[in-house]
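Hello,

Our lab assistant flagged a job as stuck in the queue for most of the afternoon. It eventually completed. Since we weren't sure the result was trustworthy after the delay, we are filing this so someone can double-check. Below is the sequence as submitted and the structure that was eventually returned. Let us know if re-running is recommended.
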Amino acid sequence: MSNDNQGNKGMPRSETRIKFAEEWVKQFFDILDNSLDEETRNKVIMAKGKACYRNWIKKSGQKIKRKTLEEYKTWVEENVTNDSVRIEGNTIYFQYMSAAETGLPSDEGQCLCPFVETLPEGLSDSYCLCSVGYVKEWHELLLGKEVEVELLESVLRGGKRCKFKITVL
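-- returned structure --
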């Protein structure tokens, strides 16, 4: 029997490994939720999101060209043809409408984090703080200013899309 077919109950090994990883993540977040105070837990999870963004920049070879908020607003007005970004004063409203790794549009209700896109049953919604950290790091590097990020909606929490309110300080 080949390695690809050595899974639980005839399941391919790759699927067994994904199920194992999903259960591992669920258990890990249960431990974080039950072991750390909210402030510490949020810092840890958001730090992972920050690291994830920096890793994506490094692996993709992307270069961050800083923009003022006004320059960013002009860029959005000229280039964004969907509802993914809206800027009002010093507040940016952003929602994921396409996959970062492909740029292709995503369906509503689809988590874009490749690690949990299957939305493992029982996964803590604190997992979404990773995206908050990701979005925070992205916008702080882009704008060269500190921002506060509020998660308005997420797929894991029952929303149609992951939506953020980003306030430039």
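-- support follow-up --
The delay was a queue issue, not a problem with the job. The result is valid. Residues 1-7 have pLDDT under 50 and may be disordered. The longest strand covers residues 147-153.
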